[in-house]
Amino acid sequence: MPSGRTNLLKTSPVAARRLYPLEQRARQKGSNYDRIAIVGCPSAMHLATGVSRNLKVPLISAEIGKSPCGSPDVKINADLENHWVFLIGNANQGIDVLNREISELESTVLQLGLMGPKRVIVTNPCFHYARQDRIGEEREPLSASDMAAFLDTLAPTLAFGEHQDRVRIYQGRRIIGTFNTVDLHNPAIVGFFRTMPVNNLTLSKYFIRDIRRRFRKKLDEVKLTPPDLGRSKMVESYAKAIWGSAYAEHLVQASKSRSGHNVVGDAALIGDVAGKIVVVIDDIIDTAGTIEAIVYVLKQSGAKEVHVMATHPIFSGQAPEKMNRILNEDQVIDSLTISDTMQLRPEHQVEGMRIRSAVPLLSSVIERIYLGKSLSSAGLVYKG
To answer: CA-CA distance, 316 to 184, in Å (whole number)?
Structure first.
């Protein structure tokens, strides 16, 4: 270990805790700091790198190629036996890569299981098929449930590695596999899992902090609204955190109709927004049809400013063009803030868009899981 870091740990415990939180606390627990690793899938390396730097823990890249028949060929060049492994799964955009990423996640988890880790904790920032969380028409598949059932099949691998007899190597200590995801489209998706422990993480703590800082001198003028009825409870939790018992005065309700899958009809507003600053909060911007419809209604209703915040920038189809139009051309909204839970492709960039990093959230979650601390008490999981 470099002498500079050694002196820091000896002479300045406060600074050491700030700069090397996981290492310092691991030492206090009597654990081995070298037994922790962050493994990043290719399109999630921006998150894995940030977490690794933030916590000062080793970063390992999962090299994913293709075999001649097209199946994933995963290589992880590291010794992970008896390690705590935190895998950050792929976070790419586009239906063209969605199913490939699911296959790559499975192959990576199975590969890790063969390497004898102590525990494997998987974080897939955006849950695949999250929008297929309910049956809209007769005989329509409930794909979110099917995805949860598929991930459940990986639970034995996450718990004990590929071979069940590996339990004996660990002298009976149970190795619990956990699946983390961020801001599920429907929190009820957690109930689709049967054997896998699931944490529905949320960026609300960080978005709330952004709202307070940005509008700190005019919070009385701010109103929050979901883009539709489905996100009402989430936005209500934001309002309660910011304004406490007076939260109801700062809520506006929006609703919409659909004429088909991903086709938005009319949008309506319940509440007065004239002369107010309105923040629209959503979990996903997919086709951007809902966001586009509601922001025009807000402006027509007299809103002084309109701001949009969303966690997952899926940006399907013409979504980038729509967001560019309402932000830069028509200037219907004053700001657009999304997170980096997904890796933005060049063609999905929107000029003037703000990025809220998910790295602080993932870093806190990893640290607390390793130390056996509560995620709920720190406001890192969705409570409803």
So the answer is: 18
Token readout for 30 is 């009597």
- Cα 370 to Cα 178: distance, rounded to the nearest angstrom: 12
- What is the SS3 assignment for 209? helix
pLDDT for position 259: 55
What local confidence, expressed as pLDDT, does residue 33 receive? 55
Greatest Cα pair distance in the chain: 68
Q: What is the pLDDT of residues 197-229, one digit of tens each?
A: 899 999 999 999 999 999 999 999 999 999 988
- Three-state SS for 126? coil
Report the pLDDT value the prediction gives residue 316, as an integer from 0 to 100: 86
Residues 318 and 263: beta-carbon distance below 8 Å:
no
Sort 141 into a burial class: Cβ within 10 Å, 0-12 / 13-18 / 19+.
Answer: exposed
- pLDDT band for 171, please (50, 70, 90 cuts): very low
Residue type, 15: A
Residue 90 to residue 67: CA distance in whole angstroms:
19
Rounded to whole angstroms, how far apart are CA atoms 338 and 85?
28
- Cα 164 from Cα 149, distance rounded (Å): 20
Q: For residue range 253-272, list pLDDT tens digits in order.
A: 987 666 555 555 567 788 89
3 state DSSP class of 326: helix
Please report the pLDDT score of residue 110 as a whole number: 85
What is the CATH code of the structural domain delimited by 204-356?
3.40.50.2020
Q: Which CATH number does the domain 32-202+360-378 belong to among 3.40.50.2020, 1.10.10.10, 3.20.20.70, 3.30.565.10?
A: 3.40.50.2020
Rounded Cα distance between 91 and 64, Å, is 14
The pTM for the full model equals 0.84
Neighbours of 300 (CB within 10 A): 11
Question: In the chain, where are the structural domains located?
Answer: 32-202+360-378, 204-356
3-state secondary structure of 263: strand
Query: Who contacts 271 (Cβ-Cβ below 8 Å, separation ≥6)?
Result: 223, 225, 251, 252, 253
